[in-house]
Write a structure and sequence with these properties.
Blueprint (H helix, E strand, L loop, with lengths): L12 E3 L3 E2 L2 H11 L4 H4 L1 H5 L10 H14 L7 E12 L8 E13 L4 E11 L5 E12 L3
Antiparallel strand pairs: 1-4, 2-4, 3-6, 4-5, 5-6
Length: 146
């Protein structure tokens, strides 16, 4: 079901379903992105690294967060485009076996013209312990109804 620009309210919140990060996710993302950094790929190297074990790519976790949002219906048929991203921060590592979900809050509604508006979300990706792992502000351009 399409949600149009005027259907959104400042302060409204939502939370997606969860997803567990797997070894296969990391290997597939490394192949796709070309990022074979030992922090992600070598258990032996990572043991002596800053986190004591391998971590998921930040860009992978961010990408999964966008997918979880789409699956939850966060971006309906009324979406015109992903409009931008601000203040992206990777605040805690994500390990193989961690389970993440996405919390979103509408923080700004900006009309653009008679046909479109931009919605800004405060987005927090949290792990299974409800600890933030990624925070960012994302903006989506959405159609307005006549």
């Amino acid at each position: 079901m399409a949600r149009y620009y005027q259907d959104y309210k400042l302060g409204e919140t939502s939370t997606t379903h969860s997803r567990t990060i797997t070894e296969a996710d990391i290997v597939a993302f490394a192949g796709l992105s070309g990022d074979f950094n030992e922090l992600h790929m070598s258990e032996e190297w990572a043991r002596s690294g800053p986190f004591g074990r391998r971590i998921a790519h930040g860009a992978l976790v961010f990408s999964i967060s966008t997918g979880l949002t789409v699956q939850a219906g966060g971006y309906s048929d009324a979406v015109v485009a992903f409009y931008g991203l601000d203040k992206l921060r990777f605040v805690k590592p994500v390990f193989i076996g961690d389970t993440i979900r996405v919390k979103k809050k509408v923080i700004e509604l900006s009309p653009r013209d008679d046909n479109r508006g931009v919605i800004a979300y405060e987005t927090t990706v949290v792990n299974q312990d409800d600890e933030p792992v990624i925070v960012y502000v994302d903006r989506v351009m959405v159609r307005r109804t006549a």
